[in-house]
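I wish you would study the pair of lines that follows with an eye to the fold:

===
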Amino acid sequence: MTITITAFEKSPDGGKGLARDTRIRWALEEVGQPYAVRLVSFKAMKEPAHLALHPFGQIPTYEEDGVAIFETGAIVFHIAQRFAGLLPNDPAARAHAIAWIFAALNTVEPPILELQTAVLLDKDKPWSAERLPEVKDRVRVRLKQLSAYLGDAEWLDGAFSAGDLMMASVLLRLRASGLLDEFPNLAAYVARGEARPAYKRAFAAQLEINKPV
């Protein structure tokens, strides 16, 4: 059965790779698996058919041979376990790669999302200017820790893994803020992720559906 994922009919970012379906596309491209995309509108995301797949009415979802999954971390983890190419064979290295998937989503991404909310949604609030530096500093704390761990290594733990795919995807959200540039090794790390052929294919596919008619 063909793998089917869902994506925005029109992505809020205009196809710049920040919508979470990009992470799933990238993972499938890395493991060489073909997939179909079912585009959903914001209205359709809140209707019963989609809510049956994703109870919170979001994207992406993943369907294959009776398996239906939501949440990007769960989907990427499933892909990495199901197909070779995103997790090492060595048990210890495999455990580390899996840990980085969760670290990206649970430790690094939350302050980044808080920053995006502060910049995009709260900018007109009277307390916004006072709060924003604190939010940025919380992001910097995580980036400093991650930068120290990465050092001059190419990837987080040896060869590229699902952990790197998720971490690079999360860090991409910082590009517009300029914070990533404060940590040259992290900026270079993200650039290496973007340079991978699988990422380029995933990005191009997402951009294609968002081109003006």
In short: The radius of gyration is 17 Å.
